[in-house]
Every structure is written in structure tokens, then in C-alpha cells.
Design goal:
Layout: H1 2-22, H2 42-59, E1 61-67, E2 70-75, E3 83-85, H3 90-96, E4 103-106, E5 130-133, H4 141-146, E6 151-153, H5 161-170, E7 173-174, H6 187-197, H7 201-221, E8 229-236, E9 239-243, H8 248-255, E10 259-260, H9 262-267, E11 274-277, E12 289-295, H10 299-303, H11 306-309, H12 312-315, E13 319-321, H13 327-334, H14 337-356
Parallel strand pairs: 3-4, 3-6, 4-5, 6-7, 8-10, 8-12, 12-13
Antiparallel strand pairs: 1-2, 8-9, 9-11
Helix pairs in contact: 1-7, 6-7, 7-14, 13-14
């Protein structure tokens, strides 16, 4: 399964490069070589002029994208499109569509040696994009401006309007869907918005369709998942978090046939990608099956957490506990078409083992 979307990305890269190489010759294409005759009327000449103006306007805009902060026009670039990818996984989606950003915000800490993307996307990078390290402070707007971007992708982000306005002053900036909660655009909408911004809407639809096909096939391969309850969550610091609808860490589980455990669904709010879980609420994780991973801890420490280990789902071996440093954990968090392939290859067998322990 992994090969299909990787091949798609490679084909898209070749297609984008071919289009860029041909762009300089389009000015001469389709020009009328015949001189106008005396039979042309003033009305015809006016109509022709209006059509030429409309075509010129249309040709000057690569895409018009409607998002949380209204419509944004992305102009046709002079050369290759210079993309700064700031949102969570925005760069990997651009790469899957054959477009290499000039700068990448390294949300998951993959590092400069990996160009700020996961191992499933590293081979798609041919240049040397600037890696912007993740930081709790404001974005480095001067650095972003120095990249001279044609478009800024900030689709999967915290949706701060002041931040958006500052970015949009630098270059046309694409935010998330109009009704999306912070860091919760949904993988399909994120992919489609990025594809639109790159002038690759049809390719984006195809990428979504191929990814959905992989999900559907995996679900068909595991009918034992249908109707069972599940949760996904994490431990960070002294707190716990429950992933909610719109966050791919839950959505992929639901797409495979599971239903959110009732007590978990009761506290899952639509205005954030996770819900805080207090020590008194840890029983919301006690579903038929749970997928849990640590942030700032090891898998062993997660397994030995006194509250989590007291739950039946953990003590009876129905919890899939991920190691923080393993690729699957990073892919589970990345939530884009390329990383979803990794999840679909590696997580379902572990879920099937957990289901067997239901007895």
C-alpha cells in the first residue's frame, strides 16, 4: 500500500517540473497570426478586447482559495512556486502533490537532517529547504519574509487571526477551513485546501480518493473492528489528553470501524483537537480497545502509570501502547496522506491483537 501514494507523489513531482519548464512558452501559444480585416466591427473589437482583459486577469491568478479568513488569490509565479509550509503536516501534503517548499516548519521535531519531515516523505525532497524549528514563541516573521514566498501554507494551525494577518502581509496565506477548530482541519479538507493553493485541485482530489481507498480496503480486511468501542489518547506532563473528532489520531480509528467509547464521547468537544482528562476521569480510556502514546515519557513509563495500568483495557492487553520515538507514533500524529500509509500498514495488526484479548 505504501508504494501507491509514494508513486503518486513521484509522478506529481515530475508533472510539476514539466509544467514549470513549459510555463515560459505559454505567452506565445494560441496567438492569432491573422491580421484583422476591414470587416471587423467596432463591437467585435470591443468584445475581443474585453475577452483578452478577462483572460489576462485569469492568467495572472494561479488559484483563488476560500478559507477561514476569506478568499485569497495566489498569483501565478514568475518561476517555480515558492512555498513556505508552516502548518502541521502542510509540507508533507505539498510534497505528496509534487511541490517542494522552500521552508518547512518542523512541528514534530524531525530535524534538519530530515528536512523537517517524516521518514515517509524525506525521499521526496531534492533540494535543501530551510527548516524552521518548532518553538513556543511567535513565528520568525523576518525569516519567513526572507524566503520571498509566493504563498504561505498555514492550514493546520492554531488559527490566530493576528498571526494570520502578519503572514498575509508577507505573502498570500492560506488558513484552515471556515468552521475548523484549532489544529483540527480534518485530513481531507487540509489536503484539498493545499492542493487548491498550489493550483492542483484535481490532483488533490485524486490524492484524497487514493488515501480513502487504502483506508476502506484496510477496514474491509478487518471486519472484527466493526462496532467495537475505542479511544486514542496520550500522557504529557502530569496530564492526560483524549483525541477528538477531526484529529487524525482518532479519525483513523473511526474510519477503520471503531466507535468512540461513550464516556469519552461525553467529554470530547468540537472546539479542540483533544480534551483534557483529569486523574479522576482516566476511566474514559477504558474502552474495548485503546491506542495510547507518551509525550515526554517512554512506553514503559506509560505502561506503568498507576492510573492507566489500573484500567481493564491496559491490564487485559487491549491497549496498543506506542513508543514515543518510533516512526509509527510520529506517523500517527502527523495525520497526512503519506503518514496515513504507514499507520495503515503497522497499526491494524496491533489493533487486531488487542481485539483478540477481548475474549
Amino acid at each position: 500500500m505504501k508504494r501507491s501514494l509514494t508513486t503518486f507523489a513521484a509522478v506529481m513531482t515530475a508533472s510539476v517540473l514539466a509544467l514549470a519548464a513549459c510555463s515560459d512558452s505559454t505567452d506565445d501559444a494560441g496567438q492569432d497570426t491573422e491580421e484583422p480585416t476591414s470587416e471587423d466591427t467596432t463591437e467585435d473589437a470591443t468584445d475581443d478586447a474585453g475577452e483578452e482583459d478577462a483572460d489576462a486577469t485569469q492568467d495572472g491568478v494561479l488559484a483563488t482559495v476560500n478559507h477561514k479568513y476569506g478568499p485569497t488569490e495566489v498569483p501565478v509565479p514568475d518561476g517555480e512556486l515558492r512555498v513556505v509550509a508552516l502548518g502541521w503536516s502542510d509540507a508533507e501534503i505539498a510534497l505528496a502533490l509534487g511541490v517542494e517548499p522552500v521552508a518547512i516548519h518542523d512541528w514534530l521535531g524531525f530535524g534538519e537532517e530530515n528536512h523537517g519531515v517524516g521518514p515517509w516523505a524525506v525521499d521526496l525532497i531534492e533540494g535543501d529547504p530551510t527548516v524552521i524549528p518548532r518553538a513556543d514563541a511567535d513565528l520568525d516573521f523576518e525569516l519567513i519574509q526572507s524566503m520571498d514566498p509566493d504563498v504561505i501554507l498555514n492550514v493546520n494551525s492554531g488559527y490566530d487571526e493576528e498571526e494570520y494577518n502578519r503572514l498575509n502581509d508577507i505573502a498570500p496565506t492560506i488558513s484552515g477551513p471556515e468552521d475548523a477548530a484549532n489544529f483540527n482541519p480534518g485530513w481531507e479538507a487540509q489536503t484539498e485546501l493545499i492542493a487548491e493553493a498550489l493550483g492542483l485541485s484535481e490532483e488533490g482530489e485524486e490524492l484524497v480518493a487514493q488515501t480513502q481507498e487504502l483506508i476502506d480496503q484496510t477496514r474491509a480486511d478487518h471486519p472484527e473492528f466493526e462496532g467495537l468501542t475505542a479511544v486514542t489518547g496520550s500522557k504529557f506532563g502530569e496530564a492526560y489528553g483524549l483525541h477528538t473528532g477531526g484529529d487524525m489520531r482518532w479519525d483513523i480509528i473511526e474510519l477503520l470501524g471503531f466507535e468512540m467509547y461513550g464516556p469519552a464521547a461525553d467529554i470530547a468537544t468540537p472546539d479542540n483537537f483533544y480534551a483534557d482528562v483529569s486523574e479522576e476521569q482516566v476511566e474514559v480510556f477504558d474502552a474495548d480497545v485503546a491506542v495510547l502514546f507518551p509525550i515526554g515519557y517512554t512506553r514503559e513509563e506509560l505502561e506503568n502509570d498507576p492510573l492507566l495500568s489500573s484500567l481493564s483495557v491496559v491490564s487485559e492487553g487491549r491497549a496498543v501502547l506506542l513508543e514515543a520515538e518510533e516512526p509509527l507514533s510520529a506517523a500517527f500524529s502527523a495525520g497526512n496522506p503519506l503518514s496515513i500509509e504507514v499507520v495503515l500498514e503497522e497499526l491494524p495488526p496491533q489493533l487486531a491483537d488487542a481485539v483478540e484479548n477481548l475474549g
